[in-house]
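Today's session is about reading a structure prediction critically. Students often jump straight to the picture, but the first step is always the sequence itself: look for stretches that repeat, for charged clusters, for runs of hydrophobic residues. Only then move on to the predicted structure, which in these notes is written as discrete structure tokens rather than atom positions. Here is the chain we will use throughout the hour.
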Amino acid sequence: MARIVILGAGESGAGAAVLAQKKGFDTFVSDMSLIKDKYKAMLNERGIQWEEGKHTEELILNADEVIKSPGIPNDAPIILKLKNQGTPIISEIEFAGRYTNAKMICITGSNGKTTTTSLIYHIFKKAGLNVGLAGNIGQSLAYQVAECNYDYYVIELSSFQLDNMYKFHANIAVLMNITPDHLDRYGFEMQNYVDAKFRIIQNQTDDDAFIFWNDDPIIAREIAKRHPQATLYPFAETHEAGVKGYTEDKKIIIETSNGTFTMEEDLLALSGTHNLYNSLASGIASKLVDIHDENLRASLSDF
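Below is the predicted structure for this chain, in token form.
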């Protein structure tokens, strides 16, 4: 029986433990801090072994694979020891993705990702899709994969979560913007942070979609360099060449292979330019899964 050790017993760690045990792994959870009572109860109910306030090396270094909480820095002593001996270290999202065929709608960005994730989830849910909300908000993806059976997951991803994702595949990737953030975790090198954000499009094929803000200079530079495989769906405030979501004559216009959607801009529930971008990105993602115009219009106006 393969051994999986989970470092960190917050939402993602406890969820990963539930899924690992359900899939038949020898599962152990270790947290340097105290574990919240609700997560202890979750582990105890299932007979999953755990420790808190320490990392016992002999119980961790024998792992076949380690699932690391996004909050644990990559240079933590136990992580460095695991890396030195070649133990694979992955994220909870990476692990969970192995055990579901659901469509993954993944959102990242330095700003606006929580609003956009919540709005896409609201639209999908209101349209009657069988959808879960995961990542930085909602229950952990791993827990939902273990306990639920959704057709879609809308997932907010931080750069820290993306760092330990390797084979995970976003069917629809949304990148809102990139501005300097968390640089202490990236050796104070902006490019390292940018590289982490762009992991959201790794493993995408031409069957997938990449939605992004067209006027972000960093995103533009990286796209020119990386040549993404996915179909590109840029959005902008005004109509520019190739843009698929924009405003014109006080209307928002979204163009996808599933048709053109229009809506009066003043009917949007969210106001302000940054919220316009959140609405455009959410609208494109929703049209790509063929949500009906009347459902999309209702959700964008009552969020």
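Discussion point for the tutorial: Residues 108 and 158 are 6 Å apart (CA to CA).
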